[in-house]
Fold this sequence. Notes:
By secondary structure, the protein is α+β, with helices and mostly antiparallel strands. The chain has 11 helices and 14 strands. The strands form 2 sheets. Strands 1-2-3-4-5-14-6 form a 7-stranded mixed beta sheet. A 7-stranded mixed beta sheet has the order 8-9-10-11-12-7-13, sandwiched between helices. The two termini are 24 Å apart.
Amino acid sequence: MVFHKLKQNDEAVFATNNYDEINFESQFWSCYIWSPIIEQYVAHDQIGTYVYSVIDQTWQFDPPRCTINNLPAYIEQIKQIPNKPTWEINLLPMQAAYLKQHPIADFQYEILPNPGYADYIYLASDLANYPGKKFQDKRNLVNQFNKLYRSEFREYQPSDLTIVKQFLTTWFNEKTVGVWNDNLPIVNALENYQAYGIKCFLLLVDQQIIGLTIFKQYPKYVDILFEKANAKYKGSYAILVQLTAKQFTAQTMINRESDLDIPGLRKSKRSYNPIRIIERFVLKPIN
């Protein structure tokens, strides 16, 4: 099995062995846009498709792309890769459950919860309307925003790239801890948005960008790839999330991805009342 660096023409390989789940790794472009800052490698054989990223000198494998019954054989293939550094395999709930019920012989490992990578799933109609008592605080924030500011929400145009870059630089520089500098992946996405089939919308106040959302729509759901707003504008995130959700039909599932174990981000994502949280697990070899 020979790995090569992830490239655009690997999209077909992703589709060959994919899992039927609403999670961001299940689609090629949701992974590929991170290539400017994360090394990603892929290989394919008769058992399945293997994808790993190099993060902190660890090979982090995506959830296995194979049939559930082939999980032991899939993991055995990974075990046989020579000269591996530290490695681990991310698992979806059904995969973790299967391995707990069918332990792999002659292999010591542990399966642990990985809450920082759980995906938050929302119903578009909830975010578009903020209905009921549980969304009262979001409605209040939207009302305050609309009273305070004259805003515009419009689709991104290539001529916007320079001012978007300025917004991203300012946004990141104002953060102190707990965030990734994802400016390069965002710029990569915008420079290739037509080829990648993604969309971007901008939130502006007085012709200045104060927020953006970048997403890709799939047959079963929408993946929110990036979502940023200037929190100095009261209610900016609440209005950005709402206006984005209004772009989709009421029953559309929206994946706003994970909280990366950042407490403030976790609190924020839970405050929008997800209808489902797709748990994550990680398999780690022992010794």
